[in-house]
Specification:
alpha/beta; 6 strands
Length: 230
């Protein structure tokens, strides 16, 4: 059995790890255009996610000035709406807001509460500050601290995003455990010296064979069991 990491703070990715981001976007698309079949809806969710990913990479490469997640989601919503022939500005605004109406995974709230009773918990997200307020309120996620990549005008996996959590804790990076459903996110945390825990979710980026994270668990309940069993 993998030893439990000896850490003082647990840092969580939010989008995809704690909340079902594609599911929220899918509901917004179905509200915009009722009757779309599953395949077409999935294609539109993919269009949205590709736009956001591409624009974040463009920002990270210096090809575009920083824009926060609400701007990128609004652009993505405009692209999706145009794809299905919807031009009403209010409908597009409502669609963009679906990126902030994201349901928690079934174990997110309870497992977060179990871990928070034992250790400080911090949310660290690529979502902008205003978006995080709405995302956490909708999902019922409660943190001891919440940090946004907007504070460094960048996006994970840029190193200074993870250093926000390290600096906030006042601890050495190896005293922090980064939790995510995205292996790319955990690699970024490893690069600054943080400990890492991969949590399997229906969406996300699974580890490669060469990845070596401190923990790999099938659910957040599983992580809570590991972190609170001693």
């Amino acid at each position: 059995m993998t030893p439990t990491p000896d850490v003082d703070v647990v840092v969580f990715d939010i989008l995809g790890t704690m909340v079902d981001e594609p599911g929220g976007i899918e509901r917004g698309i179905r509200s915009l255009v009722p009757g779309l079949d599953e395949a077409r809806t999935g294609d539109l969710v993919g269009l949205w996610q590709r736009h956001v990913d591409e624009q974040q990479r463009e920002i990270l490469s210096g090809g575009r000035p920083y824009a926060d997640s609400t701007v990128l989601d609004r652009e993505a919503a405009e692209r999706v709406a145009a794809e299905v022939g919807v031009g009403d500005p209010e409908a597009v605004r409502s669609l963009a807001a679906s990126a902030q109406r994201l349901d928690p995974w079934p174990d997110s709230v309870s497992a977060l509460g179990r871990i928070a009773a034992r250790l400080p918990v911090t949310g660290l997200s690529n979502a902008g500050r205003s978006a995080l307020t709405r995302i956490n309120a909708h999902a019922g996620l409660r943190w001891h601290q919440i940090l946004s990549a907007e504070d460094v005008r960048g996006y994970k996996p840029r190193a200074d995003v993870y250093r926000l959590a390290v600096a906030d804790s006042g601890l050495a990076p190896e005293r922090l455990l980064m939790v995510a459903a995205h292996a790319w996110d955990l690699r970024g945390a490893q690069a600054v010296g943080m400990r890492t825990a991969y949590v399997e979710r229906p969406v996300g980026d699974p580890p490669r064979p060469e990845d070596a994270f401190d923990l790999e668990v099938g659910s957040l309940d599983g992580l809570a069991e590991v972190l609170t069993s001693s």
